[in-house]
Structures are given as C-alpha cells and as structure tokens.
Amino acid sequence: MNNQSVWMHIGAGSFHRAHQAWYLHKLREQGDDSWSIALGNIRDDANALLTQLDKQQGAYVLETVSPEGERHYEQISSIKKILPWDAQISALIEQGAQPNTRVIAFTVTESGYYLTPEHELDLTQADVKADLAGGIRTLYGALTRILKRRVELGGAPVTLLNCDNLRHNGERFRHGFLSFLKAKQETALYDWVSANTTSPNTMVDRITPRPTPDVAERVKAATGIQDAVPVMGESFIQWVIEDDFIAGRPALEKVGVELVDSVLPWEEAKIRILNATHSCIAWAGTLIGLSYIDDSTRHPVIRQLAWEYVSQDVIPSLTPSPLDLGDYRDVVLARFSNPHIKDTNQRVAADGLSKIPGMVTPTLIQCYARGSEPQASAVLPALFYLFLQRWAQGDLPYEYQDGVMQPDTIRALFAGSDPLKAFTSDEALFAELAGNDAFHALMVRTVARMQAWVNETTAQPLTV
Ligand SMILES: NC(=O)c1ccc[n+]([C@@H]2O[C@H](COP(=O)([O-])OP(=O)(O)OC[C@H]3O[C@@H](n4cnc5c(N)ncnc54)[C@H](O)[C@@H]3O)[C@@H](O)[C@H]2O)c1
Ligand SMILES: OC[C@@H](O)C(O)[C@H](O)CO
C-alpha cells in the first residue's frame, strides 16, 4: 500500500462501508487501484468490528435491496488497512501523518460537530471542553493530534472530507475545527490547516440500516461466504461533491459520483426532504407503537404529515431549485416504504437535538419570513417534543441515542411547570424563533393535535 494514495476514513460505522468504500471498490474493479482505504475509529465502540474486519483482510459483503426486493451481493475490497483502536489513537495518527494519505474523510454522526444554531463551536459541550484540555473524544481533538504529527513529518497538504448529513458539511466542520484550534491556542496548526487543507462540501446518500444477524445468514446462503461483518443498504446510492481536493482524489466521476461547483441544491433537498422527513416518520411511528420505517411510512396519517411538510413548507422555501423537488419527495417516500429494508425507527430517531436545529428550524424561519405560518413543519418539533416526553417518562420502547443530550437537563425540562414553553424557548433548537409568541402558540396547538392523534391511534389496533 506504500506507493498508493490512501483515503483514511475516521468513523467505522455501517454507512462508510456501504457508501464511500463501495465507490472506491467500483473504481478498483475498473482496474484503477491507485487509491485504497485505511479505516479507523475515534471511540472504542467499533473495536469488535475492526478486529473482525482485520481478520477478513478488510473485505466484507455488501447486500443491497431494490424497492422490488431484488437482493444483490458484492464483496467489497477497497479497505486495505485496518487501524486498530487505542486510547491515544496511535494508528490513526501514524496513518494520517503519512504524505501518501491524501484524503482524511469522516462520518462521526450529525451530533459529532458540536455547533450552535449560529454554526459556532459550542464551547459549553463536555466533549469539547475535554478535548480542549487534551482529550480525544471528538473529531476536533483527534484531528489536532493527527495533523500535528503530519506537520512534524513534513506537512503534506491533505483534504479533510466530511461525509455526514450536515448542511454545508465541509464549511461547517472547517469553521468548527478552526475555532477549536483557536480556542486551544494552537496558532501554528491553525495557520497550517488554513493553508494546507481543503474541506469540500458533500452530499451523501444511501439508506444503511444497522446490520441484523439475518444479513450474515442471507450472505452465506447467496454467496457461500461466511462473513461475520456484512453490511446492507438500499440499492439507491448518490454522492455529490464539490471538486476541491488539495492533494488529488480518486477518479470518482468514473463510478457515478457527481463532482460539482456547489453542492447547495442537493444538500438542501437531502437534509430537508429526506433526513427531516425520515426523522418525522421515526418519531411519529415510535409514538404509535411501530418499530420500522417502512411500516411507519405506509401509515396513511404519517405519510400525509410527511407529504404536507415537504409540499406546503419545504418546497416553497427551496424554490427555485434545479431539482424537481416534488419528484424528489415522491422518490424519497417510496424509498422509505421499501418493505425489504427493515430500517428501524430507533436508528432514524437518533440525534433529534441536532436534527431539529439543522434540518427543520431553517424551514420554520423561512416560512415566517415569507408571511406563512409553518403549520405543516411545526408537526416535526411537536412530534419530537412528545417523543422526548416519552423518553423522560421512561416509556420509549428502545434506548434513545443523542450525542449532545444532557439527560438531567431534559428531565428537568419535563419536571418544570411549563415544559412546552421551555422547549419552544430553547435557542439551541429554534434560534431566532425561541421565545416567539406566535411560534409558541402554533406549537401549543400542534402538540395538542399530535397528542390527540397518538391517543386515538393507540386506542385501536394498528393497521399499516
Ligand atoms: N446510515 C445511513 O443511512 C447514512 C446515510 C447517509 C449519511 N450517513 C451519515 O453517517 C453517519 C454515521 O452513520 P452510520 O450508519 O455509519 O452510523 P453508525 O452508528 O454505524 O456509526 C457511527 C460512527 O460514529 C462514531 N461516533 C459517534 N459519535 C461520535 C462523536 N461524537 N465523535 C466521534 N465519533 C463518533 C461512532 O464511533 C461510529 O464509528 C450518520 O450519522 C450520518 O451523518 C448515514
Ligand atoms: O435519516 C437518517 C439517515 O441516516 C439516512 O438513512 C441517510 O441520510 C440516507 O442517506
């Protein structure tokens, strides 16, 4: 691997293996093996996966499922090096410092960037504080160590590529990282990063559920391969990237990646129409006792809520757009309805405290700005409020994961005299709408309407 260009990926989740690793695999299949992946993780929650992948020389089977239920199996072999985890992230530092590592990409979830609604680094977050004091809990603390070593070894330029669902993901990450370096008084590294790295914005798309044991069983039956860590996703895949790689890139255009000057129309459509609607469906489905995204999407009331949110509030906010947003909405709802992808409401409901400000609040604000009350969009925070209330009551059917949640703060909110007022006054969620009387009144009505719907629906047997 020494003379090759290395794409180091931080964040050994399912998505990376179903998406970026697939594209690089397709390129290698075409005979271009000039790039390969080195994969590692900042936190210790991927250790078992990394150990097993190492035993399999980085190879694994990807199962994809079309809306018609056709399953396809491919052995993915673009990951050529596994970077084992230790508390000092030694292997990530060693690999990330090498001059032939020309791209450092990452998927560390929506809540892994610790930004305020104004897109500033949130210095009040415990993880950020810990890393400013020398810890390695966040991407910022990890990159600080990796890039310091890179500078010591000569300081070859490198692209820092965000592959998470975040608006302007390259720019927002970069601002967060530079703010972190400033707060840490790492002046020399700040200057080096400013001059020697780029951070293109990207839009990434492929629904990738957490793999369940039946994936390995199907892989064995279909291919004969005994794979302990296969991954599965929908057949749909898309990647749009701003073409700004400072140290070269794989010939991604040969495998269907769209390299563009501005990713803006794609990312807005993806974040507001796909991701926000997805979470809406997950919160609503959970509240009425459903476990899966496809069942929840096929529920007529939930489908209508999602359709109205996109049609009434998002499309007018994003128009004009070079994309056919109505068509995008319909395709997205069809993808969510795929009964062969048993994606869970639990996975998609996660990180709501980051998703509301990032994915929903801009639409609320834009509706008010053009004089239209966002009745359909208010349904999303209303559902999330009821969902959080269930969590505070200990009544969710699963563990809720939220990277920025302070459990005591949420419990205190629901123990207070007017929890909905406290919720709608939260600037971290609603930015300039926090404390706005008209918005609060809309939320009071919408929460009451959603609560009545939940009560009625759960009082009778479910048909989906
Ligand atoms: N799964 C999908 O359908 C999908 C599709 C498009 C984009 N994405 C993006 O990829 C992200 C990861 O998805 P996944 O399916 O791989 O999830 P996953 O749960 O399989 O993996 C999450 C990864 O993020 C790491 N992580 C979590 N919080 C972190 C933090 N604060 N700092 C550093 N690392 C952290 C974990 O250690 C793990 O490696 C999503 O949050 C989303 O932004 C996912
Ligand atoms: O909305 C949840 C996301 O993880 C989603 O599955 C993904 O963004 C699809 O590309």
Automatic annotation (TrEMBL):
Pfam families: Mannitol_dh, Mannitol_dh_C. It comes from the Bacteria. InterPro entries: 6-PGluconate_DH-like_C_sf, 6PGD_dom2, DalD, Mannitol_DH, Mannitol_DH/Oxidoreductase, Mannitol_DH_C, Mannitol_DH_N, NAD(P)-bd_dom_sf. SUPFAM superfamilies: 6-phosphogluconate dehydrogenase C-terminal domain-like, NAD(P)-binding Rossmann-fold domains. Residues 263-449 form the Mannitol dehydrogenase C-terminal domain. It is an enzyme of class 1 (oxidoreductase). Keywords: Oxidoreductase. Signal peptide: none annotated. PANTHER family: D-MANNONATE OXIDOREDUCTASE, MANNITOL DEHYDROGENASE DSF1-RELATED. This is D-arabinitol 4-dehydrogenase.
